[in-house]
Amino acid sequence: MRKLGAALLLGLLANLAQAGEIKVSQPWAKGILESSRTTMAYMELFSEEEAVIVAASSPLANQVEMRDMQITFDGGPMRSVKVDSITLPARKRVQLTPVSEHFVLQGLKQAIKAGDKLPLILSVRMKNGETRELKLEVVTRGM
């Protein structure tokens, strides 16, 4: 009976540990020219519960904006538009790509090249109102 109780408790604890978990995979940033001080960061996110990215920052950038590529109805090209948040629906993969939502790191404090790792901090508001910080290392690719 004790073994069954312990097994049930471990299963419950494992489920609680997964509740609200956010997984980030393949974070990467574009390489830039030596003279440039702006790059973009992309990744795939998966949240166990609904959550919203409400802010982003990096110690290597003066500012990090969340942006979305939107189609214009005047026949012009897609435009990058600043957004206040990025929604992470429960149990759905969200891909941040060059033609969708992504992060723009502006005012880089140093040049970056392929292979460099950029620190990126995401502030995520969970469904229960709690705010979490996700600390990432974004790998820079070539231009």
Features:
single chain; 143 residues; mainly beta; Immunoglobulin-like; 10-stranded mixed sheet; 1 helix
List the helices and strands and how they pair.
Blueprint: H1 2-18, E1 22-29, E2 38-47, E3 51-57, E4 61-70, E5 79-83, E6 86-88, E7 93-96, E8 102-108, E9 117-126, E10 131-140
Parallel strand pairs: 1-10
Antiparallel strand pairs: 1-2, 2-7, 2-8, 3-6, 3-9, 4-5, 4-8, 9-10
Describe the 3D structure.
The chain is 12% helix and 52% strand. The protein has 143 residues and is mainly β. It has one domain (21-140): PCu(A)C copper chaperone (Immunoglobulin-like, Sandwich). Strands 1, 2, 3, 4, 5, 6, 7, 8, 9 and 10 form a ten-stranded mixed β-sheet that branches. A hairpin with an 8-residue loop joins strand 4 and strand 5. The longest helix has 17 residues, at 2-18. It is globular and about 45 Å long. The N and C termini lie far apart (61 Å).
